[in-house]
Sequence to fold (304 residues):
Amino acid sequence: MADRPPVSVLLPTTRWTDACTELAAQLEDHDELLIIHDVEDDPVTDRQHTPEGVRLIAAGEPEHCSGKANAIAAGMEAARHDRLVWTDDDFHHPPDWLATLSTDYEAYGPVSEVPYFVGRDPLSIVLEPLYASVGSLGIYRDNRIWGGAVIFERDDIDEAAFLDELRRTVSDDGLLMEYLQVTTVGRTRIVPIGGTIRETVERQVRWTQILRWHFPGAVAGTVLVLLFVLAGATLAPLPAAVLLTVMHLAINEVLGIRRWTAVLAYPAVFVFVGFVVYALARRTFVWGNRRYRWRGKFDVTVLD
Fold:
């Protein structure tokens, strides 16, 4: 887009990934890519040469928030421009990704894309259909924010209040949804997740806790719907299996994704309901290399 305002892209990561290379290649004059890591000896700092427009920002160790929230806060404070893009290092950014987001902002204002989580271990593969229906479809339908692909300007939020609260909580995009209204455009990004069953368990706990503290009504409604579906799946297994499979195939079509895992929708319900109950009962969870205790929206303890 010609003559667009310069953009500061915030990318929290402790290592140089393909996403860093992809985004660095998309920078235009005066744009910047902030690679926000934790400490000076993170692997990303070993890189001998960084492309023009790329800056490494050491956020430091988080004290009362998650490492991700700490990184985003540090990145926003270090960014030179008013137009900000948040993104993650775990999905492919096509060559026109940044330019398209900027064009979208001119048309709609703040904009977010939609993630589609693809499992890499047996448990996350089984749960894929529920990630699509409970997560991705909700983001698409309700204009919610995904922190992996969102663009906005500082004046769109109360930045000082936001940063103060961000340094006292876990979820960056969960909090941003309380400050910012976005338009969710119909672009879905494949995001590989998992790798080990333990990673998937910890992620499920974190995601459930985010809903618990930021959207308690949504948690209650989701649990009630899941219990109703579970009862139907137990009492009429064959019709329920057919209905759930067809429904998730339709959800995938809405999201523009075709995945064979829609056929796992029936067993996924049984697994997912159990995990929601387990996640609500858990008092700590692991994210990255840190363990957190999250007692309230703004009551976070970093345990190790």
Summary: The mean pLDDT is 94. The chain is about 45% helix and 20% strand. The longest strand covers residues 183-193.
